[in-house]
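Q: Could you fold this chain for me?
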Amino acid sequence: MSAATTPWARRPEKAPDEPPLFLHELIAAAPAGARVVDAGCGPGSWNYADRPALAITGFDIKFPPGPPPRAAHVGVVRADLARTPLEDGAFDLTICHYVLEHVTELRACRDELARITRPGGTLYVAVPRAAAFDDRLYRFAGYFAKVALMKFGKRIEHQQRFDLAMLKALFAERGLTLEALARVPAGFSWMNDPRTKPLQGPFTDAVAWLHRVSGIDLAADANFVMTFRKATAGAAAGMAAGAAPPRIRRVTHVCRECGEHSVLAPPTPSPARWICPWCGKPNP
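A: Sure. Below is the predicted structure, expressed as C-alpha cells.
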C-alpha cells in the first residue's frame, strides 16, 4: 500500500489567521536568530539540523539514549527543569514536549518555564490527559512492571495527572495565556519501546477494530498540545479579562510508528488501514 492509496489522510493544516501550534509548525515559523529552548530534551524533541538559523539550547537531567548532536547553533546543558541555570527571559520560544508528566516538582518546573520565556514569547506544552485510556494504560503498565520485575524502588514515570482546567489555571498564575489547543488522540507510539514493540501491532489493531465495530474510541482525547503567550509587563494586569479564546486545532489520528499527527476523512465504510502522511507507515 502506498500513500497514493490514502488521499484522505493528510497532515494538519494551519489557516492563515491561526498561530502555529504543533511542534513542527513552531520550529518552521520561528524567525532566523530566534532563541529556542528544548526543556527536557532527551536526544532532541525535533531534528535541530532542520533550522540551523535558530539559536537552540537543549537541556535535561539525563540523556537516554544520548544528548542531541552538537552543532554550531546548538548548546546542550545538563540541568534540572525545576532549577535551571538559564537566564530570565532568555528565550523567544520554549518547548516542553511530553516532559511535565514525568516531573515531581510541577510548580517549580512551571515557574522555570515561565521565567526563562521572554515577555511576549511562546511556551509550547504537550502532556497526556490523565482521564484518557492511554495515560491510564501507561501508568498501569508502569505499576505492573514494577511488581512483576520486583523493582519495588523503581520510580513510576508519570508522576503528574492533568486536565485542561488545571493546566490553564497553572500557567495563568505565571502570566501565560492559552493561545492555541489541540486535543490529540493516542497513537500508542510509546509502545515502540523494544520491550513492548511486539505487542504494539496487535494491540493497536484491536483498538481500531473496537472503534469500527462499536464506536468506542479508546484512543480519543489522549493528549493536550498547547501554546501559551507570556504577557508583557504592561499587558499582565488585564490579560485574563481581555484574553481571546484559544484557537482550537483538529487532529483525528496519531501514527503509531512516528507519533506525528494526521487528519483523516475516510470514506464509508472506513478502510482497515491508513498510511501516515509523515513517515509512510501503515496504521490501523
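A (continued): The first helix runs from residue 23 to 29.
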